[in-house]
Structure formats: structure tokens, C-alpha cells
Amino acid sequence: MSLLLFTAFFFGAWAQDDEPAATTDLTTAPAPEKATVASVYDGDTLTLSTGDKVRLRWVNTPELRPAEAYGVEAREATKALCLNQEATLIYGETKRDGYGRLLAGVECQGQDLSVHLLDLGLGHVFLIPPDERDPKTLLEAQDRARTAKRGVWSTESYQGSFHFTSFHANAAGDDRTNVNGEYLRACNISNELVDLAGYKITNLSGRSFTLPSILVPAGHTVKIISGTGEHQASPDAQIEIYLGSPDPIWNNQRDRATLYDRHGRVMDSRIHETKGPPRP
Ligand SMILES: [Ca+2]
Ligand SMILES: [Ca+2]
Asked: How many angstroms is it from 6 CA to the middle of ligand 2?
């Protein structure tokens, strides 16, 4: 494999990830409090002069791969504020994720990068519990951008109360024996606590699942898992709901998940598509 191809593959692999933090640190390297920003991969992912990669806290910006609207603008905004500048890193309980990336808030030129991106409409509030920060300033910045229909708020995928941030239609291994390996993650992009009672999620072949009454605070995500299990409703950790299906729901080649609120309004819709030969 050529270096270029390898680089593209490697970056593609971690850029698409929006997983909340793993609970264990894979690396024990000390986390720098200040460092120069050496490069910016996308709006919420950058590399420090120490070689550490940083996943920015409190915001999720559109992906570059596959390309999402305003992904390039988000990257350019992060570059403009932080590239070659000294960054102050702000950590929570978990300093590194399962990939060894630092999970940190970033301040450059006296500005909070997350609030800056939210103000520009180049991302949405994205809280990974436990998080001690009062989300008020984040939600206010998001609300200003939404009201002005800036950036992502002008696009179809951000008109409802929820936005899908990932779609794992193909479970690890054989989906039939790993039904809970299929899941989606949806973020509450409104400024209010939302009760999912009466919400429905459907697939392309017309199967429909009604969600339980679970409260999702603004900025929190809910992991929607295909199989059976006990819902995790506490906002102090990742909120999880189980659709209770005995068999896989999402087609590994092509499917579309659509989330409806209790009035039948579409909150968001997301396509999963795999190119190439069928995989189990
Ligand atoms: Ca599947
Ligand atoms: Ca599979």
C-alpha cells in the first residue's frame, strides 16, 4: 500500500468516529496542558506539536469523509483560530479515548473553540457524560446559530430535535448472532430536554419500532441498539435504548433509518450504503 493510500485510509478510519469516550485509557502518556496546534484534520479533530491527536469536547462538526455539508467550512474555521497557535487544553474525567486521542476543550487566542464553532453554525452541541461543564454557553451559541439559520442549521438534516451522528448498520461479525452490534447514535440538537415516548424509528423495508419514554437532555446522545437489553436512562452515562428485535434490523448493503417524533414529523433520516460485494 502506498503511503498516500495508507494515510487516506488511516485518517478515514478515525475521522468517521464519533464514539463517546471509552472508560479506560489506552495510553498512559501525560496529557499536555498547553501545546501548539500543528495541524487540523477537521473541525473537531486536530494534532498538537507533541504528536497528540485531540478530539474536541462539547461539539460535533460535520465529517469530511464521507463529505457532509459544512465539513470543509468547519475545518477552515478551526484552522483560522488555532493552527500554529498555542492551545490551552481543558480535560474532564477521561483524558484520552479508546484510540489514545486526547479528549479536550481547546482555547486559542483567548477563545473557546467549541463555542466559536457553535456560534458559526459549524457543529452542534455534543456532550459525553459525565461532563461537569454547565452547557448554558454552548446551548446559547447553538441557539444563536440556529435562529440565524447559519451553516448546518440551513440544511435538511438539522431541522428536527435529533440528528443522527453515526449509523452502524453492519454489526461486527455475523449480524444474526450479534444483533446488539447494530446501532445508531442520535443527538438531541434542540435546546430542551426531550422525552422519546411515542418516537418511532423505521428502516427501508418498513419495519417500525416505538421508542420508550426516556428523557434525553439537550446535547446528549442516545444509542439506539437493535436487540434486547436493559435501557440505560441515566444522563450521567451514555443513554441507551434497545429496540428489542430478535433479528438484525439494518441491511448491511443499503438501508435508511428515519426517526419520527410523536406527531409523525421526521426528525432525521440517514442512509447506510456499502459499495462492493455483499458482506455478511
Ligand atoms: Ca445489519
Ligand atoms: Ca457484520
From this structure: 24
